[in-house]
Fold this protein.
Amino acid sequence: MTRLLAATSVTALVLALPACGTSAEGAGSSGTTLRVAAAASLTAPFEEIADAYEAEHEDVSVEYQFAGSSDLASQIDNGARLDVFASADEATMDQVADAVTGDPTIFATNVLTVITEPGNPRKITGLTDLPRPDLDVVVCAEPVPCGAATKELTEQQGVTLDPASEESKVTDVLTKVRTGEADAGVVYVTDAAGAGDEVGTVETKGADEVVSRYPIAALADASSPAEAQEFIDFVTGPKGQQILRDKGFGAP
């Protein structure tokens, strides 16, 4: 079983993708390598989904590119050799509409939450505390789905942030809070849940009103179109959906 971990920049992704090969070319004579580009927030469930999928498809191995959805969309626009794209929002999938085949399928939903250092030493009570001048707050950059959702949520709640940094993927926001580089951040509830007691969470007013819908689609120039559709069917089927629910994602 093969995994290709997230590239940290657009340039790194460009370099990494051509080197891996696809389909039988990538897996040699033993089978097919399926290339899946997936939003960083999907890392935990998709790794588990790959294990379950590969157990039922012994001739297929799944390679992932986990990164911010906007970075992945840029790679697809630039001709990256991929079979499947799973984005953290519909707007980003729309950006590559000409590169996908068929209609994207919504397979999961997610919402945001405020996270803090463990024990919440800064006594943050919610979203409205984040503009406090004594806080270092990190968020996703606006082009990234979690950043667009953060902007929508803060505008809806009348909160203006002055973040210490804007990250290219939600997992980077989580890391900065978890390691103490920031006092607080805004991430998906699934990321907060996955971090366990390494971060604290606080009630986030209005979060349930800003729902991120995750679409998945096969790429029109996929090297392994049949396997791409089988993978999508697995993600949207009972086993894939149960794994996503277990990781805290909402139903489509």
User: Anything to note?
Assistant: The CA atoms of residues 142 and 151 lie 7 Å apart. Residues 4-29 have pLDDT under 50 and may be disordered.
